[in-house]
Amino acid sequence: MIGTIAGWYWVIFAVVSVTIVVLMTRYGDGMEDAVLDSQMGGSSRWVVMVLGIIVPAAYLRLHLAAGGTRDTLVAGMLRGGLVGGLLIGLVTAVYLIGERALFDAVGQTWTRQFGPPADGWAGIGLTVLTEACVVATYFLVGAGVAAGFRRFGFVGGTLWTPVALVPAALVDLATHTGVTALLTGLERLPGGAGGVLLALGGGAVAVLLAAWLLRLLLRAVSLRPSL
Q1: What is the number of structural domains in the chain?
Q2: Does 143 reside within a domain?
Q3: Is residue 9 assigned to a domain?
């Protein structure tokens, strides 16, 4: 489900991006940065976060009624987030290659401020892996936000939300994307080999942290939400 919805998102985004580049080249002053930079490295994270809020909450009762456990639900969500993330990461890498080719075709210089380097096969692989971490983290964070409201009620869930968002902020910083990286300042984040290690290591830590927080909540969530 994650891969299908995000796939359609990227198809629409690609069509819009091509239109923007062509129109800005023909009627405007051209493009200074990659179109994806206007989304701070990609907005598919918000799509999967919404899915994380909606889908797991709907499946909790069905999963338990079918004989599953809360831990297996978290494990399944983790696997689903990673698989969906890998697919979205692959689409993102293909999109970046196409966007760069389009810039070259219309005589524009392609530069990218957000995200890891995307040059060569290593860059493509890094893009796929880091985007997988982003997608999996945001999916689990969305589920954690929803679980917080089920566990603590409206007031407690509202207070819990900033805690649930910590893994999202961490993966933003690690991958040099998202709102947190923008607010921190990309120039303050490490580049080069250190940046690559941060992207992979920090991304993995963010995924595991999001899964751990969700597991803590789901083990105590009542099937009847609190008010």
Answers
A1: 1
A2: yes
A3: no
Q: What is the pLDDT of residues 20-53, one digit of tens each?
A: 888 888 877 767 677 777 766 667 788 889 999 9
Is the pLDDT at 168 greater than 90? The verdict is yes
- Residue 58's pLDDT band (cuts 50, 70, 90): confident
- The amino acid sitting at 8 is W
Share of the chain above pLDDT 90, in %: 36
Q: Is residue 173 part of a domain?
A: yes
Q: Which residue range is the domain that position 108 belongs to?
A: 37-218
> In this structure, is residue 16 part of a structural domain?
no
